[in-house]
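Hi L.,

You mentioned the student needs an example of a multi-chain input paired with its predicted structure. This one should do, with 977 residues in total across all chains.
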Amino acid sequence: MNSLGYLLAALTPYHVALALGGVVAGTVVGSLPGLTATMAVAVLIPVTFSMEPASALILMGAIYTGAIYGGAYAAILLNTPGTPSAIATTFDGFPMAKRGDGDLAITLACIASVCGGLVGAVFLLSLAPPLANVALAFGPVEYFWLAILGLTLISALSQGNLLKGLIGACFGLLLSCIGVAEISADVRLTFGSQTLLGGIEVVSALIGLYCVPVLIDLVATPDRHLKVEEASRGFRLREALNISWRSKFNLARSSVIGTLVGILPGAGGSIAGLVAYSEARRSSKQQERFGGGAPEGVQATESANNATVGGGFIPTLVLGIPGTPPDAVILGALLIQGVRTGPNLFTEHGSIVYVFIWGLLLATVLMLPTGLLIGRYAYRSIVTVPKAMLVPTVAFMTLIGTYSIRNSVSDVVIMTILGVLGWVLGRFGFSASPIVLGLILGSIAEQGFVQGWIIGAAADNLWGQFFGRPISLGIFAFILLSLFSPLLLNRLRVKREFARAD
Amino acid sequence: MFTSKKRGIFTALAAALALTASVASAEYPEKPISYVIPFGPGGESDITARHQQAFFKKKFGQDLVISYKPGGGGAVGWSQLNDMPGDGYNIMGINLPHIIVKPLQKDVGFKTDELALIYMFHYTPDAVVVSDDSPFKTLQDVIDHAKSNPGKITFSGSGKGTANHLAQVTFDKLAGVKTTYVAFKGTGASVTALLGNQVTGQWGYTSVGAKHADKVRLLAVAMEQRHPRFPDVPTFKELGFDIVSGAYRGIAVPNSTPENVREKLSSMIGQINADPAFKQKMENDGFALVDVDYKGMKAFMDEKRQAYVAAAKEAGVIK
Amino acid sequence: MRADPASRDIGGMVVAAVFVLVGVLALWDTLDYADADSYVFPRTVAGSLIVFCIASIVWNLARPPDRVQRGPESTMRRVGLVIVLLVAALSMPYLGFLLSGLAAFMAIMLLAMYDPWTRARVFVYPLVGTAIVLGFYFLFNKVLLVPLPAGRLFTG
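Structure written out for the whole complex:
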């Protein structure tokens, strides 16, 4: 079959219905904090037993991509990233919503997600086998430096000063050690508590550290949650399209970053949005607007995180190495169906892979109308619902969502306590993002470090292992740049202001 | 949070109530059975349970509803198993050597003997894996190289105190060599390190050979007989090393579950194992079926415990 | 902006001092780990945490930043919300998710209510609230097959 044939096979009414249903379900799932794409896809596995592999893949891929976009709603309207990949969406999305531009932010996020999703899927369609080697080029040491890069980026980005960011990051890294160690099986930092044995789950920490402080502040005052404009302004689609066109380079760059970083198994999905965000800020002429409601910030993160969907499928399908947790579930479903992944999949089973990729593209395009509609509905309900209904509903969602991630009551307790901690720390200028990133990247950094150390020691070349590999050195250079560029810029700005004052 | 004693009383009460209500009926199972996997979705424990899921529905007309309770390398799930109602509608996956080694390391909320195991349905045999372009063609090549370069050969593997790690320690001892074991988080990460040539080889599983057939080569498998999917790969026994090991997976029930239900469940799992189509699917994925039923469990566990504890002491993961 | 000595970031320094204690506690916990692989990382991190905290305190003493002004707020309601969430979590295994969740929903609704309770609201709000809780319960428990706690006090 040629590519036109695959395209037509993807466009059957059955597949269009699957893609549409998947995207809608995924968007709804993603918009509820605590409901993850992983869960939604896992629930569907028994359903896919009776489906053709390509159809099953289209359904699961559509849910996945919809869920990543749906995560933008909670990030923008409630300051709560449902997945780590949406953390940087809160930086500018929530300030936009606060000042009454939540509808615009959601429409921008939808357009950006579609762009990112398309770029990621096109890369998957055209360059998957060669790009998969990126995943193999990253050894333990590269992952170690990548994690450190993620931590320095977030420390430098978060409001307040760099030192407070670094303190938060270190605290998050310590949190990541709690529980039974993933590799060595030692029980660490639980101080005898059974509640802490399973460690701190990332999504419940996200809900606790981001959502609970918002709730705590919501009950404290009679003010409205978000500023509301009286007249309805529709989707503000024209305005959003104009903004998107103006930042087309930002969208393109972020989508490519998302795809490439998304290829890296484990770490990619979490930090792709962050890398794209900080690149967008670096190349912007008005850096000071970032963090205070700059549309470019939302666009960068949202295009990058939807690009990771396509990016993550690259190692999953080519190497059988899942890029993200939902990829792992999808891979498992394929194995049960007897489909072997690998380079052969692309050459011998084109009718599965290419039909799926066209289906993913189709689902991404369908996300534009459905995303705008559902987004509009989400915005209206958050804005119009009276506080006495909004707060208990969101609070109830944090309870049920946190429980459902690991079916664990302990996680609910931990979520609440982290929420209080996040609120207190926030009052004193320590933001939640470095803590969460520390928690996410802690195990990656630790494993990379320990493995690199053991391998380096076995080869009698520790220095070469950590500082002698080209990719490591490249990442290391980025770390230095992101650590010291804010300091330098600050100094320049202070100098300029003094000059003006004189 | 709550003391386990209190929990125990509650469960006992609940179980007593439940028993009178449901179990006595001959139609068991008359509603879907909840099957908890104490790991995340997408791993081997999940995939093998999913294989069973399809056959269970076909044979017994009821759904196996799979859910996940990950955390602490399985400890979170196992420590809560005995709090679940023992009505025959709650079962949980269990893994060896995890349930033997973990409780001996530290207090992880459960003891091996507290788990009511009813069936071991398969194991994933350990195997030495190298990438396709590796200069090592046979296990002897590896041993020769290791003898002249002690400690220089690096093997990736999944975790410490695991089947991979204990097999590596046992092999080093039997072959009189010293190799370096690099623990990764799970088999996926350890295969990635192998494919990226970050390590010399991998202490992996036969399932790695099945999943990455075009990229890797198995040098030896830790089975009694050769694996049907890899007829050309010798066993360690053939090569003179007495290693038959791997990650065993089975099913446990809350310890309040009555004997007749345990036996019934045990024979149901056995019937699935006996289905040739199931066997075919599992072996295609590189797994190997075993049949340890409820009656044979004690002898099996006693034997395994001895071997695992000895290896774990050797490996230094328990004192 | 000119720094005012009166607006030194006392809170930030107190938090940093607390984090120094956290770091020391973590270091103390690492003393009984069996495996070198498991203590290298937490020790390094705890050490860095302590260094950054001390640096932050010194930095604060050297050049104090300004403080943010805050409006009148109700601490009682804040504390109330946190307590309700915790009680809901801890009572879940006994009362069951549905009952705990429903009770928490109603309690938080009272905490978040700033408008007068008109007769219509007294009826409509609890009804809508119950519908929301039941709806989510159904979605998670029946559609997504999440085994929500049933409550040991009532079920067998």
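You could point out the following to them. The first helix of chain B runs from residue 4 to 23. Strands of chain B lie at 33-37, 64-68, 90-96, 116-131, 154-158, 180-184, 201-205, 216-221, 246-253, 288-292.

Best wishes,
N.
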